[in-house]
Structure formats: C-alpha cells, structure tokens
Amino acid sequence: MATATTEHGLFIGGESVEPASGELRDLREPATGEPLARAAMAGEADVDRAVEAARAALDGPWGKTPATERSRLLHALADAIVSNRRELAELESRNVGKAITTVKAEIAAAAENFRYFASAVASIAGRSNPIGGSLLFYSQKEPVGVAGQIVPWNYPLLMSTWKLAPALAAGCAVVLKPDPQTPLSVLRLAELAAEAGFPAGAINIVPGDGPTTGAYLVRHPGVDKIAFTGSTRTGGEIMRLASDPIKRVTLELGGKSPNLLFADANLADAVPASVWAIYVAAGQSCEARSRLLVEKALYDDVVSQVTDLSQRVKVGDPLDPDTQMGSLISTAHREKVHGFVDGAREEGAEITTGGEIGAGAGAFYPPTVIAQADNRMRAAQEEIFGPVVTVIPFEDEQDAIRIANDVRYGLMATVWTGDPAKGHRIASRIKSGTVGINMPYTAFPGIPFGGYKQSGFGRELALETLDLYLETKSVVTYTGSRPTNPFGL
Ligand code: NAD
Predict the structure, then answer these.
(1) How far is it, in rounded angstroms, from Cα 261 to Cα 396?
(2) What is the pTM of this model?
(3) Residue of the nearest CA to atom 15 in ligand 1?
(4) Which of 165, 229, 330, 341 has the CA that lies 20 to 30 A from 121?
C-alpha cells in the first residue's frame, strides 16, 4: 500500500524500473492534501525503452502466445484483481479522492471487463468467400502491433482496463501512459499481470506529462496504434500528432450529456437516478448527465426535488463506506469548476444549492444545481467535469430533442418517460453513442460505448473494440488452372 515514503517506478519489460531522468514526483491525497507517495515520471528515453520492450515481446514469447493462452491469462488477471480488490480500491480512492463505495464497483467492473475479453478472444476469426472459378480467398486477423494508450485521471484503473483488455486479447503489446497525478493503481495492475504470467514487455506503464511524454508516445515511429481517452481538446491534438507518421487512432472524448425528463415519467425513479447520474465520481465522468432537461409543467417541482436530494448527498472522507461523494481531483480543478458556476450566476441563472468553496485542505466542492438556465449558457455547453447539474426547461418532444442535440458532444443520453414508444422514438433521434431509456447506467462489458460528434470515434467494451486492435489480411490464390492474364502477357 502507498505511503508518503513509498516510491513507485515505471513498469517496463516486466519489472519496476527507475526513470532515465531519475524524476520522482510527490503525489498528494486530493481529499486531505497530505502526501501519498512518490511516483517516477517517464521521459522520452523511457518511452523508447518501453516501445522497444513491447516490440521485443511481440517478436518473442508474447507474439507466439496462442489465443487460448491469452484468454487464460486474461482470466488469471481478472482473478488477481478480485483477490487484491481491497488494496486496489483503497489505492484508487486515496489517489483520486473518490468515494470508496463507488471505487469498489469500478474494481469489480474492471475484473468483469477482463473476463469479457477473455471470452471475446474466441470471436477472432477470418473468413472465406466463394468468389468464383478457381479463385480462393481467405482473410486472417493479426494484431495491429504496439498499441500506445493514453488515459485520464478520473477512472485511472477502469479506463486502463478498458484499453488493456481488448489490446491484449487481440495479441497487441501495450505502452500505456496514465495521467501523472494518478499512476498508482495501474502500476499495481501491471505487477499483478506479471505475476499472473503475462510475458515481459506485453504491458508497459509510463506515467508522465501529456504534452511531452504523451505527445512523444503518439509520434513514436515504433507505435502502430493510439487509443486515447481524455478531453476533446487533447483528442484533436492527438489526431494531428498521429498523422506523421500515420497511425491508427481511436478517441474517447468529452461529453455534455442530456437527461430528458418528461411529465409522464415515474418521478420516484427518475429524480434520484438523475441525481446519481451527475454526482457519481463527483461529476468527473465523461458520461455525467450534466444537463437535466425537464418538461415545463414539472420544472419547478423537479428543481425543488433535485435541490433537496443534492443537499442530502453525503460528501466527505473517501475511505468512509457511508460517503457518497468524495473530493475533486485537485484544488486547481475545483477552481475551474467553480468558474463555470460563477459564470452561470453572471449570465442570470439561479444557484439553488452549492456553488461555494468551503474551508479545509481537501479539494471538496458541494453538489450544485444551476436552475433557470438556458441551453446556450456556457454552463450548458461546456464540460464542467464537477458535481454541477444545469436544469433546463423544454416545451415538448421536439423541443427536448432539439435541446438535447444542441451541443458539440454526443456521448450519452437518458430519457425518462412512461410511454415506451416515445422512449424508442427519442432514442433514435438523439445523436449520441448510448441512450438509456428509464435506466441511468451506462457501461457494461459487451455493450459498445463511445461517442458521436466531438465525443470521439471508436467503441470501447465490446467486440467492435477488439476489431480496432486487429488488422485484416486478405490472402488470394488460384486452386485450379490459371485464367488468362488480363493483360495478355
Ligand atoms: P486530458 O485530455 O487533459 O488528459 C488525458 C490524458 O492525455 C492524460 O494522460 C494526459 O497526460 C494526456 N495528454 C494531455 N495532453 C497530451 C498531449 N498533447 N499529447 C498526448 N497526451 C496528452 O483529459 P483529463 O482532464 O485528464 O480527463 C478528463 C477528460 O476525459 C474529460 O473530457 C472526459 O470527458 C474525458 N473522458 C472520456 C471518456 C470516454 O470514454 N469518452 C472516459 C473518461 C474520461
């Protein structure tokens, strides 16, 4: 377990190693401001080393590991996550400041994700078509090669497992860069993977700064594919960097997801679920339903219920099992969140609860409701990434769909209605990768997760993901007599 004096190296070639620069960065617990651990930061020379280790693994034992063995290893890693779940949950909770009850659910989901891809290995298959004459064609699937993966700080372990599991199932070797603030859980995961039997170099972890170490990884000529989760702004930069030399790219980016509440909905279900859908992970979720769109007839009633429930969310020590919402990632991030709330106030919205920074060293911010809001306000258009919900009225179904789609993002949406046909009709017209009908939960192994519009492209968690780590090679030949050469030569 991490302590103020624990030092964590990089993970390259199957072991913990010191960074070439010798840089160790102090990490602090966001909820207390107390020192947590010291973590090595990778520079360019370390990325070079990690890419070399990944390439050697592909050319060596990992590249020769058959699909059934990869499946067994993925299951073994899932087992190791379950056996070490308490340690992983505490590490993550202390490093990110998130309530341990929700982190425990993330750890369980991480294990399930490895199990899903352990089974999905069986779906990797080429095909053969009867093309005609004596022409024989078959295709085979091959791993893309070395995958560079970059993940954010909000779900450090879960987002890493979303990336690692499909890449390893496909037979790729990975160099993964966590956010420099939150490297601890994925470094521990890499150790568990080595103990579970993954060959050296299959998984390499290089925490480091984005614009330097991250950008170097994206540009690295030894990396064949980049899978990125993070902000839309950084996603654009990754696309530019990955264009020379050209590599495959998938992007899971930001969101400003709508939660549509119709007058015919069951409010007893819809209101508590809508409160959960913004405050889980203190709103630091890409799929946070941060715009609550409410049919006009219900607007005042819903604002009052949401305000009341927001005041009852238990905010506090992330390690207390009764805590429902911990701190934000840092006081610097809290300033950004607070700036959006102040901006909404200045634009004429009403803050019915929260919206003030309290005393104390931790990066806490209260559940905050912005009412009397308009969808064109900054707080309704930009990703705040904090426990702040903007409540916007709508007239009717058309108006609700118009407002829901009137953002540059398209990751997630939830519709609450008592009319199933209306739910499906609206689902088909909302421009987002996932739509929940009377159901707030978003991510399950086996169900594709990803964005429309500026929320990115590519899908996580499903068979579609596996294909993003595979090349399709077509092999063609004749089995009988050779037809006349079309050029007559
Ligand atoms: P960020 O874009 O600032 O950073 C994400 C990662 O990219 C970090 O590891 C960072 O070090 C790295 N990075 C930053 N600049 C880079 C560069 N120039 N080159 C290479 N790497 C670089 O995002 P963040 O603030 O850490 O994370 C929050 C964002 O992530 C939010 O927008 C959220 O919606 C998004 N997110 C999306 C999903 C999804 O599945 N769509 C899931 C989780 C988070």
Answers:
(1) 11
(2) 0.97
(3) 210
(4) 229
